[in-house]
Amino acid sequence: MAETLDKREVVVVGLGWAGSIVAAELAKAGKDVLGLERGQEKTTEDYLTAHDEYRYVVGHEMMQDLSKETITYRNTLDEEALPMRRFGAFLIGTDVGGGGVHWNGDTWRYNPYDFEIKSMTDEKYGEDKLSDDYLIQDWGITYEELEPYYEKYEQTTGVSGEQNPMGPERKIPYPTPPMKMTPLLSDFKAACEAAGATPFRTPSGNLSEEYTNPDGQTLAACQYCGFCEKFGCEWGAKASPIVTTIPTAKETGNFEIKTGANVVEIIKEGGRVTGVLYVDTATHKEYIQPADVVVITSHTTNNTKLLLHSDLGTAYDPETGEGSVGKNYCLHITPSVTGFFDKEYNMSMGAGALGVTIDDYNNDNFDHTDHDFIHGGSISMKQQGKRPILENAVPDGVKNWGAEFKAESIKAYNRSAGAWAQMITLPYVNNYLSLDPTYKDEYGRPLLRLTYDITDHDRNVHEFIADRIEEVIDQMNPVAKTRSTLGEHFDILPAHNDHIVGGTIMGADPETSVVNNYLQMWDEDNVFVIGGSNFPHNGGYNPTGTVGALSYRAAEGIERYLDDNGPL
C-alpha cells in the first residue's frame, strides 16, 4: 500500500536540463518545488581525477541500469521486440543533472525552417515533395517566438561561440568568445573554404573563459583535458545543471531534491491529475506525492513511457494513424569520413564541443528541387580528445586485431581525424514508441518498446552529406580515408547517435500533438511534459540548446498557470 505524502505546489520528475531549469525559475518566483530524481546527487568534486575510460565510456557508469530498466526494440510491426542489453544508439542518463552532466557541450539553436518545416516545404517545393508516410508537421511555435528563450539559456550556460554565417543574425553575441583554434581545426577550416563552404566555430558549452551567469553562478575556463562526453567535468568548466540551475534553485530556499525516487506513474483521480507515484529505489516502498502541477522532465524514452503507463493522452496507432503519444520518434544518423594523414596532430587534448562547423548543406540553405530529400545536416570536425580504448581508427583493409592492428592504430592515433554530420531524420509512419506486451521492468511494469527502421529518406540524405564531407576531407590531402555506411536495417549497435526525440510532440493541433507550445498537455491542463520528446522531428543540430529554450518558455507558462489557476 503506497504511503501518501504532504501535497506540494509543483513536483518535477527528473532533474536534467529541463527539470532543473523549471525548478530554478519557479523557485525564484516563490513557488514550492519538489524535484524527484531516481539517481543520486553528484557535485563537481565527485568527478575529480575520474578519467577512467573503461568505467565511464565502456561501462556507462553515468547511465540507466539496463539490468533493471531498459527498452525493447524491433524494426517492423510484425517482429517481436527484444530487450536492449547494452547502450549503443542512445544514452539514458541517471543521477541529478542527467544527460546535462555527461554531454559534450554542443549548444545550438534550431533553424527557423525547422519550426515551420511542413508549411515552408509545401510552399517552396509543393505538397508532394515527400510521401504521406513522412509525418512532418510544424511545431506550433516560430523561431522568433523562441529566440528570447534561446538567449536566456545561453546566458545561463555561458556558451562560447560566434555568429553562424548561414543562420539567423543574432541579436546579442554569445556570452563568451569561441574556444581555441588548434592546428587540426585550422586545417579543416581551410579545407572547408577550399571546398566552397563557409566554416565557423562550433557553439560550445565548454567555456573558453571563466564566466559568471545572471544568477550569480560562476563557471571555470575549459582545460582541454579531453574528458567530456560520458564524463562529468571535474573543473566545473562544462555547463551543466550541477553548476548552474541546481545551485540557483537551492539558493532560493523554495526547492527540495528527493533522490532515489523513481516515478512510475502519474496519478489521476476524479478525472484530474493529482500527483505521482514513485518507488524508493533502496527499499522498493511506494509513495504517492500529491501536487497542484506535475512537470515531467525525464529522458525522451521515459517521458513517453510515463504517459503510456498512466494512460494520459492517446497512444499512437500506426495502423490507423490515430493518437499522438509515442508518435514521431527520430534519432540522429551521423554520416562520417575519417582521413588518415602524413601530418601529426596532438589528438589527446581537446574538449567536447571544440570544433569547426559548416552549415551550407543544412536546413534549407541550398535548393532541394532536384534532390529526393529535404533538409540536410551540419558538418563538423571536432577535436574532442582521443581516448585509447575505443578510439583506434585504422585504414580500410587493416584487421581489427593482432600486430598489424596495433602498429597501424598507434601510427594513426595522432594522424587521423574524422568529420561527421548531425543529419536530419524525419518521422515515419512506422517509427514509434509503445508499451511492450511481453517484457517488464523490475517493478513489474511493461518496458517501453521501440519500433524503428532506417528509411529511404535517411539513405538519400546520408549519401548526399557523406559526399560533401568527403569533398572537404579530400582538401586535407589524406593518404587514406574511410567512410560510414548504413546497414540494411537499424540496430542498437553499433551506435548511430544518442540524440533521440519524439513521443510527446508539441504542435498547434490537439489531434496531431500531445502538448501545446508551452508544453502543457492538451488533455491534462496541470501536466507539463518537457524535453527532446517534444520535437516533432530531429533537426541538423544537437538538441540541447532547443530543450533549454523550450524549458525556459515552459517555466514561464507554468508560473502563469499557477498564478491564474487555469489553462494557458
Automatic annotation (TrEMBL):
Pfam families recorded: GMC_oxred_C, GMC_oxred_N
One MF term in the entry's GO annotations: oxidoreductase activity, acting on CH-OH group of donors
Domain Glucose-methanol-choline oxidoreductase C-terminal as annotated: residue spans: 428-550
SUPFAM superfamilies noted in UniProt: FAD-linked reductases, C-terminal domain, FAD/NAD(P)-binding domain
Keywords, in A-Z order: FAD, Flavoprotein, Oxidoreductase
Domain Glucose-methanol-choline oxidoreductase N-terminal span(s) in chain numbering: 219-333
Keyword presence, Hydrolase: no
PANTHER family linked: LONG-CHAIN-ALCOHOL OXIDASE
Family to which this protein belongs: Belongs to the GMC oxidoreductase family.
Entry protein name: GMC family oxidoreductase
Organism in which the protein naturally occurs: Salinicoccus halodurans
